[in-house]
Amino acid sequence: MTSEFPASPLTANGLSVGYGDTTILKNIDLDIAAGQITALVGPNGCGKSTLLKAFARILKPKSGHVTLEGQPITSYATRDVATRLAILPQGPVAPEGLTVTELVAQGRFPHQTLFRQWSPGDREAVERAMRLTDLEDFAERPVQSLSGGQRQRCWLAMVLAQDTPLLLLDEPTTFLDLKVQVDLMALLSRIVHEDGRTMVLVLHELNLAAAFADRIVMMRDGQIVAEGSGAQVIKPEELRAVFDLRSDVIADPATGRPVCLPRTSEQVVPLRSAAE
Fold it and tell me: Which residues contact residue 212 at a Cβ distance below 8 angstroms, ignoring those fewer than 6 apart?
């Protein structure tokens, strides 16, 4: 790992994970930087979602281990893990008839016990999460009556109400219109950088990752191929090696961040990077 990133609250060391006899992740070493958005990118089946599940202790490693806040994640009780990290899986579905407030309130379950039920602190956490995600006007609406982007904000609010320093999101922009994707990523960036969270998310759209992630981890065949800032990893040669994608990469004139321009074989221009 490079030393330019802050100390890590979540790490993978020699991590190999799979399903049954099939190994998906192979000897992964990765430190997640505190206070940043880390985007996991790569082709389908490369192990992005598997890594996220291993980080959340949903999948048991075949070898190696995950460390949470300096301790093996296996040393924590399940409730203690849920008060330190929250995961939003791909394509969650709300029960029929659940209102926005009721869904968001489910994020408070890890903080409740037999002797500590709903409290003013729980209510404040739910209200704050709904305020951050601009859902206050939809509080009593059924979740299923909302648009795709609005529903995704509901799930994000539920995760935020869990009030953990670490957030793991699996493809939060899938199936959303481009404008909604951009708005959601801007919201996630604001939450991380203004609310003091650390976020790891799986993304398919490279240009969204380049525009909003502080750090990009590029994966292929269960291994990490490259990691660093967008300018460090979004390069024509890396995209060709990881995605088998011919592309040109230019710098966004407003931000300086890289923008990937896919090419057909007839359109390929001389390779250049955003740094040039």
Answer: 37, 39, 185, 186, 188, 189
67 bridge partner residues: 11, 72
Report domain extents, the chain: 1-84+164-245, 95-163
CA 190 – CA 192 distance, rounded (Å): 5
| Cβ-based burial of 92 (10 A; exposed 0-12, middle 13-18, buried ≥19) | middle
Q: What is the DSSP letter of 165?
A: S
- Quote the pTM value: 0.88
State whether residue 105 is helix, strand or coil: helix
Quote the tokens at residue 272. Answer: 């250049």
Q: How far apart are CA 2 and CA 227, in angstroms?
A: 9
| Topology annotation, domain 1-84+164-245 | Rossmann fold (3.40.50)
What are the pLDDT digits (tens) for 80-94?
999 999 999 988 888
Write b or e for each residue in 22-51: b if 16 or more Cβ atoms lie within 10 A of its Cβ, otherwise e: ebbbbebebbbbbbbbbbbbbeeebbbbbb
pLDDT tens, residue by residue, 109-126: 888 766 667 788 899 999
